[in-house]
Amino acid sequence: MDSDVILVIVVATALAFDFTNGFHDTANVVATSISTRAMPPRAAVGMAAILNFVGAFISLAVAATVAKDVVQADAVTPTVIFAGLIGAIAWNIMTWALGLPSSSSHALIGGVVGAAFAASGADAVIGEGVLGKVLIPAVVAPIVAFIAGGASIAIIYRIVGRRSPGPVTRGFRLGQVASGGLLALAHGTNDAQKTMGIITLALISNGTISSDADVPFWVVVASASAIALGTYTGGWRIIKTMGTKIIKMDTAQGFSASGAGSAVILASTHFGFPLSTTQVINGGIMGAGAGKRLSAVRWGVAGNIVLAWLLTMPCAALIGAATYLVTNLFGDGAAGPVVVSSVALLMLATGVYVRREQQRQSSLVAG
Amino acid sequence: MITLAEIVETKALLDTVIYSLAAAIGVTTAFSLAIYGATRAAELRRDDRPLLATASGILAATGLSACVAAIVLGVIVMTTK
User: Fold this and answer.
1) Which of A136, A172, A183 to mutate to test the interface with B (most CBs of B within 10 A)?
2) In this structure, is residue A77 part of a structural domain?
């Protein structure tokens, strides 16, 4: 009975993480289309939500990596997964509040690794899997997106640079609708699968399904729905950072950035690398800026984003480990997850209330 | 002692890099040619040069078809894994 209660809490927390992932990463998908006015904001966000939902059904290679290649299966308990998810959600919310586009994927993997480490020591972590399947692709993918974005914009300017700007802008605006849609699809294929992998891991550790079982269909549907809902709810803070603060984009640059991002994410998903869509699309945006001229990129903002990337896995791991230790104080039963999730919800509600009050007071002062 | 080459799936990673670059640069080139062809065709039609306008139109259609084909191929590869 206790283990079923924990499992329900873990699944609910995983879907909450998936929601924050969609909410946090909406910017990845729509920022370029909105900032170049290729699409109105609501339409762009709506299209991204639908294509994220569809994309979640396309492939399961990443889900398998998250479920099997990061931590030892025998070290994983529902409580470990719960603590890892809290670590990831906490980091996502903190970076969202600061308007920093950090990686939800690395937050999730960092949180689970930290919690497993706190529970069973260093042996619980599959170092080769974390390094080979997560960390090295995490470094390579944004660099490839940067090169692809830079090369693409150089080719575009070479081919259409002397054409009349009006029709060219209109053409790339149409192209951006397609490349933005592809990016949303790619995001759904890579990111929704991480939650599927985590829920599958929880079901295996609870003994609900066997370790060689496929991802259950209800897990696919629930994860796809949660990320789509989160995407539709949107995160305007990060859209602003990505859409206007890194570079001032024209439509050709927006097309290059989202095209490069889609290509890298789809190829990585095909080979089962759970990379950060945030890092990839930022790499594409910086490449598209640098391809025009190096000074077009606001390197200070880019530096802050890189710093957030570097901090993501260790910070989420620390929060995940701390959450596990606190949860474990209440024993092996459901009491720990119930208390910790209640406290987390209370803290979130307080944070939202304080933020609303601050906004209300600043609008009163401005008015 | 495990080497880095044993940990990293070098072939899969290299394939990812090659396919990503080829797809991004290929689609961009094809789409740019489509826009070039379309804008040039409109100009040539205005200048009453129908033969060259048709050739530019064909370039635009080919570029656009290549883009659509690349996207469809990408989605098929993803779904058949």
Assistant:
1) A136
2) yes
